[in-house]
Specification:
Elements: H1 9-24, E1 29-32, H2 34-40, E2 49-52, H3 56-62, E3 66-70, E4 75-78, E5 85-89, E6 91-93, E7 105-107, H4 111-115, E8 126-127, E9 133-134, H5 139-144, E10 147-148, H6 154-160, H7 163-175, E11 178-179, H8 181-190, H9 199-210, H10 215-224, H11 248-258, H12 264-268, H13 273-291, H14 295-300, H15 303-315, H16 324-332, H17 346-352, H18 359-373, H19 381-392
Parallel strand pairs: 2-5, 10-11
Antiparallel strand pairs: 1-2, 1-8, 3-4, 4-5, 6-7, 8-9
Helix pairs in contact: 6-8, 7-9, 7-10, 11-13, 13-15
């Protein structure tokens, strides 16, 4: 039976029920796309899509609960079976004048016509309810050979959607598959057309490369195919030889680092403000580590930032006097773990002084934090008051 316990039960069981009902109505229906690829690879995938010979209106007749999410392109979400399942009518596509989207879509009743418009052979398989693979383009053979191969003519596939070139690199990084020779050459010849793709779509694919099990392998393909030449930043594989992370923010921080700590790249790739703050903080911490991190810096950075910046020193082959464990132990031994733990506030300083509000308050609080960290004074309000008078020569 094709439904295995190792799969996510709800999605796959719901998909099976949807297929049963479509077939009962006299139409074909199959699981298609990445779910079939991952099923063959024995990987979990909870994004289960169905392709069918039924037209969108016919799907709406078969099921009582549907949502039109892309009915112009043949897609309807079916809700009847407990989980939302995306069902799309077999279709062919016309020319892609903008290298991103088909100018027109034509619905067909033939599965092979639908599958041949897909990007790579491993994504152009279908799975029947009985567990039979429909594999017109040798997808299983290419998976077994660990090869990423375009369906049909590679030039045409990349002319249709230039993002597919970057997807080939991403799959190489995720699966550690090589890119088939003709497919590789087509990417190299068409690399410049990546500039037609929306930067947000590129950012998503780069993020997936950065968190892939073999990110450096993907970056190597960015360099060899020359795709990197047409994107913001430098993609030099040697910089990524020791890199590994499952956190996309860490990936973007490292990308900025190997590009001379160029934070403007985050704006160019439309990264979020949250991403920007994390990356800046990590890069600052990395510089502090390289220059000898002060006690104030240890207080300033949380353990996630410290761990990330320490990883950067390893990936960049920087020698430090302290191990990460020693660094964390030193941080944990600080008299306070956050500036908010300081026993005095700006209001206290105003109460103790005849001065008006001004920048001196922050300067004094910073000095007080440093004095506590250096154990020149205990984090006690009365002792800090005495320290304050001595500091300002007012006592």
């Amino acid at each position: 039976m094709w439904l295995k316990k190792r799969m996510i039960p709800q999605q796959w069981q719901a998909a099976k029920e949807v297929i049963k009902k479509i077939e009962h109505a006299g139409f074909e229906a199959f699981i298609v796309g990445g779910a079939v690829r991952d099923y063959y690879l024995k990987k979990e995938n909870n994004d289960v899509d169905i392709a069918t010979s039924a037209m969108p209106e016919e799907i709406q007749t078969i099921f009582s609960q549907t949502i039109d999410v892309g009915i112009a392109h043949g897609t309807v979400i079916v809700l009847d079976c407990g989980e939302p399942i995306e069902v799309t009518t077999y279709r062919t596509e016309s020319t892609y004048s903008d290298h991103r989207r088909p100018d027109t879509v034509e619905f067909v009743r033939n599965l092979q016509e639908d599958l041949k418009r897909r990007d790579f052979t491993m994504n152009a398989m279908a799975l029947s309810q009985s567990g039979e693979y429909i594999d017109y383009y040798n997808g299983r053979q290419h998976i077994d050979s660990k090869v990423i191969c375009a369906v049909g003519e590679p030039d045409q596939r990349f002319e249709e959607d230039a993002l597919r070139m970057l997807r080939a690199v991403r799959f190489a990084a995720q699966l550690h598959f090589s890119i088939e020779e003709n497919t590789f050459e087509a990417i190299r010849q068409k690399a410049a057309s990546i500039e037609y793709v929306a930067i947000e779509r590129i950012q998503v694919e780069l993020s997936k490369i950065f968190i892939s099990a073999h990110a450096s392998f993907g970056i190597d393909y960015m360099e060899k195919t020359t795709l990197g030449d047409y994107l913001h930043g430098n993609f030099t594989a040697s910089n990524w030889a020791h890199y590994y992370s499952e956190d996309r923010q860490v990936g973007w921080a490292y990308f900025c680092l190997v590009n001379g700590s160029d934070l403007s790249l985050l704006t160019k790739y439309r990264c979020s403000n949250k991403d920007k703050l994390f990356v800046k903080t990590v890069l600052d911490a990395y510089e502090s580590l390289r220059n000898g991190m002060s006690l104030v810096d240890l207080l300033r950075y949380d353990t996630i930032v410290l761990k990330t910046s320490f990883q950067f020193t390893i990936w960049q082959n920087c020698k430090l006097e302290l191990s990460y464990e020693e660094l964390v132990a030193r941080k944990n031994a600080l008299p306070i773990q956050h500036v908010n733990e300081l026993a005095v506030t700006g209001k206290d300083l105003l109460d103790w002084s005849s001065k008006k509000r001004g920048s001196w308050i922050k300067q004094t609080l910073d000095a007080a934090v440093e004095a506590v960290l250096n154990e020149e004074v205990q984090n006690d309000k009365q002792q800090l008051k005495e320290w304050f008078y001595a500091f300002h020569d007012e006592g």
